[in-house]
Amino acid sequence: MKVVRDKKILDLRVKLAEAKYMLTDKIVCWAGCTLQAPHHSVRQVIKNLPSRVYCTKIRHGSPSEMYSLAATYFITHVNGVPTQTLDDFLEAVRYIKDNSYCKLRIVTSENIPFAKTLKVNYHYFPTTELLKNDVSEWVFKKLEATDIEQVKKI
Question: Which residues pair with 8 in a beta bridge?
Fold first, then answer.
């Protein structure tokens, strides 16, 4: 890389990083909590990530706010099921029925683990997914809870 400093052109060697891992390409909104894979600045600060399900925002009046979830939390388990990725998380929450409780295991950004119970409300805070497609446009999907009894019959 060439840079100009004190009216002189300098040649610098710069390490490159793959931008694919720095960009957000999937966002999940669940119970008023906005989740994504930890962005680049989080990965710079926290070397050993507890999971790739990172809370970036809590909507006011949502179940997440009422049950004291907070931005910068990592969700590692839902009802005892490990959630290392957003896909794992979506698979775990799809069986939680409306107006029912679920157990969350959480790790703070300071690496402090604890557990929470949360009651979902899909009428006002449905599970949604935003995906970036091949041409960098965001595609919105509303996800419905799956009836466990129907899955068992298949």
Answer: 5
